[in-house]
Model the fold of this input.
Amino acid sequence: MSQVKPFVTLIRYTENPEETIAMAARLCYSDADIMDIKTNTESKDNAKFIARLLSMGHLSAFEHASFTFGIEGVSRALLAQITRHRIASFSVKSQRYVSATYEDGKTFNYIIPPAIEELGEEAVKKYNEQMATIQEWYTDWQVALGNKGESSNEDARFILPNASETKMVITMNARELLHFFNLRCCNRAQWEIREVAWQMLQQVAEIAPNIFKDAGPSCIAGKCSEGAKSCGKMNEVKEKRRSL
Done:
């Protein structure tokens, strides 16, 4: 085991998410039967209707489309951040049931912050050595606690760092994703969750381009909401969004 990088996979999503949202929204404004609304919605190009819903702020209909992602190569520090988004469902790899000790003698997977990598080879070597030392401490505590599997792991894991890798499955509806991208694709977001957010955005934009047409930080569709704390790189961010 060794250094890993953030990796996101879109696992599942609501079939025809844009039609689903359009059908739910049309129901609010129509006295027609649901099957008639469904047939009518399926026969139309819903792009303009979805754009109008977004401009109106009629976002409740967007909660009917959900997207499930597999995320790996991320730190426990990221886990503490992403679970603040409470309108989401999480399943996370357990440090209790899954041991961080491996028969090949390698360390647990971990994340190296880019700022440390930028310090050069010596800094990265020092960081790797520190992770190896923590691995030794962890293994020592497993032994001291009787090597009883989960009952030993649950206390030995207290020595593991925020850098240690975790994996998760996360589900969000489209409305929450729009909010998530607004906050976490911003340059002022922490680097790791920002990388995850951009990977998520790239994948859902391919599936539902009209829903996520202007998704991202506030500067994508308007002016920066950060005020004096703006990164000042709005053109760069817009170009990144266009390149997805």
Notes: The CA atoms of residues 220 and 239 lie 9 Å apart. The first strand starts at residue 7 and ends at 13. The chain has a mean pLDDT of 94.
